[in-house]
């Protein structure tokens, strides 16, 4: 009888609401993480080895992938936040057509990554729509006159930092609205009285923005930058559809390359899990150091 | 109205911003409606052409008899496309290269005028404008199954995320739990975790469960961040519901069941709808997890990703991309007001 009561009570316990999810995460998240670690440090016979990490670290493509990933994440986030803040401040004003403008500017964030990749993949071909548009509008003349290129630009054969910059442009087109909507929500939920108080005390518009608006929005901005940064560290799809595998390597691009070539490349799943662990560690390192830096700055204020 | 330079410049700038968003999408739409012939043209048109002006001539050469088919190009000149004599060949050429679906009999009727009169015949044929969309499903590998698969994966994801995440959200809002902050932090960590990194090892788990290469298997992975997200979104709604309202309903004699259905559910429904649209988008938009986990059962996004590569299929890929975009666009606009929560606002 008592045991029955206990069971009944256990089922009524609030932890019963959380238990299924904990079980779910244990089986489909923690166990796979554990399997990944084991897979990356054992060879096919089951013996312990670090050979996959060693050969990954000595692979020139890995080094390039790491550098490219960091450059991409750093610059894309900075560019996107500056542009998004400008756009949010613009859309925060009331003007004729501001609602429609807001809707149109949101469209790119709704487009699935595969469609984004096809959109820009078709655009940046030699006879694609980007060059067509340049020809029709006369931008092509400008390009030739400025000496950038004397014929249609061969977008897909650019390399190095230019290729990364091209990918940043595509990425910015896609994610700018989602960054902007966060900043705009912050601006609109903002208590106007603070700003008015600042004006009464003689602050200029810019001072009010810098010293009142941005500091109050800071927690929102910090979380959203963190999530944006993590997403940027996982860039791969646009790079592959623009340049193919291996031309402009990124960490997740390498991961996907090995993961989708199991059976063709030897020990591909070993290398894929090795890259998985590297990506996770990098994401954790970047997140922690980012949070530390932003906390330190907060204390100063 | 007073003319102002400042306002004019302002609206010019807005036009510039709008065109950055709209022009790429217009081009994508145009490519999705293009025939292979259109794709060979340069510069590409911003708006699709609806048909071709054709010139058909009967050629009576000493050793050969054929129809010469020309079309009016962008410069307004007639340019020869092909010369053919048999109508089954002409019919399939029109169908494959020009997206014109005319029966052999119709073509024969029109063409033979050129033969009998000896004069060139000028025609305008309209394109079957949505032909690429129809052919996308028959030509691209796995496209037809991909739609079903994507919807299936999305429904599973919604089911799992809502049932697991909803419970957690309710509990976080209503119960006094020890370690509440730990749970909140854990949920944030799960959402920040790069899911692509567990795609390979989770296959080991899925194979054990007999779920590899299945939509439920994919949904299990998609649900990992979505359970947390659902918990996050529903938690704030459950907090917002006035408990006294429920109590009042009970005092007036409603059963607990009635109270839930008549009072609580209508209040939380919008949040659950939003959470399910997130879950839908998470499954619908994904390419990478599906690429790693699927062997023979691609989702729509994966089928489209794989169709790229053959340059000749770019118009099918574009049509597929538009099909992929439409549901994503609708749902994103419905849930845009919840987007703050997606970004970890508490």
Largest sheet of chain B: 4 strands, antiparallel
Largest sheet of chain A, in brief, is: none
What is the terminal separation of chain B in angstroms? 46 Å
Q: How many distinct beta strands of chain B? A: 4
Instruction: Specify Rg of chain A, calculated over alpha carbons.
Output: 25 Å
- Strand neighbour order, sheet with most strands of chain B: 3-2-1-4
**Estimated radius of gyration of chain B:** 29 Å
Q: What oligomeric state best describes the polypeptide chains here?
A: heterodimer
Tell me the helix content of chain B.
55-70%
The assigned structural class of chain A equals mainly alpha
Question: How does this structure look, described?
Answer:
The complex is a heterodimer of chains A (301) and B (346). With 301 residues, chain A is mostly helical. Chain A is built from 14 helices and no strands. The longest helix of chain A has 33 residues, at 60-92. Chain B is of the alpha+beta class and 346 residues long. A four-stranded antiparallel β-sheet of chain B has the order 3-2-1-4, with helices on one face. In chain B, helix 6 packs across helix 13 (300-307), helix 7 crosses helix 9 and helix 11 packs antiparallel against helix 14 (314-335). Chain B starts with a helix and ends with a helix. In chain B, 40% of the residues are buried. The model of chain B has no long low-confidence stretch (mean pLDDT 87).
What's the helix and strand layout?
The complex is a heterodimer of chains A (301) and B (346).
Chain A: H1 2-12, H2 15-41, H3 51-58, H4 60-92, H5 98-106, H6 113-123, H7 129-137, H8 139-145, H9 161-188, H10 192-200, H11 205-232, H12 237-243, H13 251-259, H14 268-300
Helix pairs in contact in A: 2-14, 4-9, 4-11, 6-12, 9-11, 10-11, 11-14, 13-14
Chain B: H1 5-32, H2 36-40, E1 51-60, E2 65-72, E3 78-84, H3 87-97, H4 104-117, E4 121-126, H5 131-139, H6 143-174, H7 180-192, H8 199-208, H9 215-240, H10 243-251, H11 256-285, H12 288-293, H13 300-307, H14 314-335, H15 339-342
Antiparallel strand pairs in B: 1-2, 1-4, 2-3
């Amino acid at each position: 009888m008592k045991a029955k009561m206990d069971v009944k009570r256990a089922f009524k316990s609030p932890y019963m609401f959380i238990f299924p999810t904990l079980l779910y995460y244990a089986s489909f998240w923690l166990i796979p993480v554990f399997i990944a670690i084991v897979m990356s440090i054992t060879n096919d016979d089951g013996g312990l080895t670090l050979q996959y990490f060693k050969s990954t670290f000595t692979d020139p493509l890995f080094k390039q992938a790491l550098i490219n990933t960091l450059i991409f994440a750093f610059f894309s986030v900075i560019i996107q936040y500056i542009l998004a803040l400008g756009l949010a401040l613009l859309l925060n004003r009331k003007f004729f057509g501001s609602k429609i403008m807001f809707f149109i500017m949101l469209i790119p964030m709704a487009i699935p990554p595969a469609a984004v990749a096809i959109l820009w993949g078709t655009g940046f071909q030699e006879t694609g729509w980007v060059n067509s548009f340049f020809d029709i509008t006369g931008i092509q003349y400008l390009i030739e006159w400025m000496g950038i290129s004397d014929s249609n630009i061969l977008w897909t054969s650019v390399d190095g930092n230019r290729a990364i910059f091209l990918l940043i442009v595509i990425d910015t087109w896609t994610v700018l609205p989602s960054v902007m909507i966060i900043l705009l929500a912050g601006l609109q939920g903002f208590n106007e009285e603070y700003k008015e108080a600042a004006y009464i005390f003689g602050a200029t518009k810019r001072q009010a923005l810098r010293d009142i608006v941005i500091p109050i929005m800071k927690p929102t901005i910090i979380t959203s930058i963190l999530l944006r940064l993590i997403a940027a560290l996982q860039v791969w799809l646009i790079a592959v559809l623009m340049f193919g595998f291996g031309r402009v390597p990124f960490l997740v691009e390498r991961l996907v390359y090995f993961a989708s070539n199991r059976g063709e490349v030897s020990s591909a799943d070993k290398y894929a899990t090795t890259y998985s662990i590297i990506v996770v560690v990098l994401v954790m390192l970047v997140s922690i150091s980012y949070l530390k830096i932003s906390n330190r700055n907060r204390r100063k204020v | 109205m007073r003319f102002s330079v400042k306002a004019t410049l302002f609206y010019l700038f807005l036009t510039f911003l709008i065109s950055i968003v709209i022009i790429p999408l217009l081009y994508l739409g145009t490519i999705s409606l293009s025939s292979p012939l259109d794709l060979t043209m340069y510069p590409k048109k911003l708006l699709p052409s609806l048909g071709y002006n054709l010139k058909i001539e009967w050629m009576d050469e000493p050793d050969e008899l054929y129809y010469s088919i020309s079309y009016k190009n962008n410069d307004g000149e007639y340019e020869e496309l092909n010369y053919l004599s048999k109508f089954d060949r002409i019919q399939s050429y029109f169908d494959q290269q020009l997206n014109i679906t005319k029966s052999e009999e119709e073509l024969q009727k029109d063409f033979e005028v050129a033969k009998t009169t000896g004069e060139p015949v000028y025609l305008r044929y309209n394109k079957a404008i949505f032909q690429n969309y129809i052919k996308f499903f028959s030509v691209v590998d796995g496209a037809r199954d991909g739609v079903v698969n994507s919807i299936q994966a999305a429904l599973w994801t919604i089911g799992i995320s809502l049932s697991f995440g909803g419970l957690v959200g309710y509990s976080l809002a209503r119960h006094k739990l020890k370690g509440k902050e730990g749970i909140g932090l854990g949920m944030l960590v799960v959402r920040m975790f790069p899911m692509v990194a567990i795609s390979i090892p989770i296959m080991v788990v899925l194979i054990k469960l007999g779920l590899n290469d299945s939509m439920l298997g994919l949904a299990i992975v998609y649900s990992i961040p979505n359970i947390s997200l659902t918990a996050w979104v529903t938690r704030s709604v459950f907090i917002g519901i006035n408990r006294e309202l429920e109590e009042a309903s009970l005092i007036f004699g409603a059963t607990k069941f009635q109270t839930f259905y008549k009072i609580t559910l209508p209040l939380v429904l919008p949040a659950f709808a939003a959470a399910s649209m997130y879950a839908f988008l998470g499954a619908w938009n994904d390419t990478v997890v599906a690429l790693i986990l699927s062997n023979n059962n691609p989702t729509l996004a994966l089928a489209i990703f794989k169709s790229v590569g053959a340059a000749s299929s770019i118009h099918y890929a574009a049509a597929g991309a538009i099909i992929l975009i439409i549901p994503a666009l609708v749902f994103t606009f419905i849930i845009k007001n919840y987007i703050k929560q997606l970004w970890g606002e508490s």
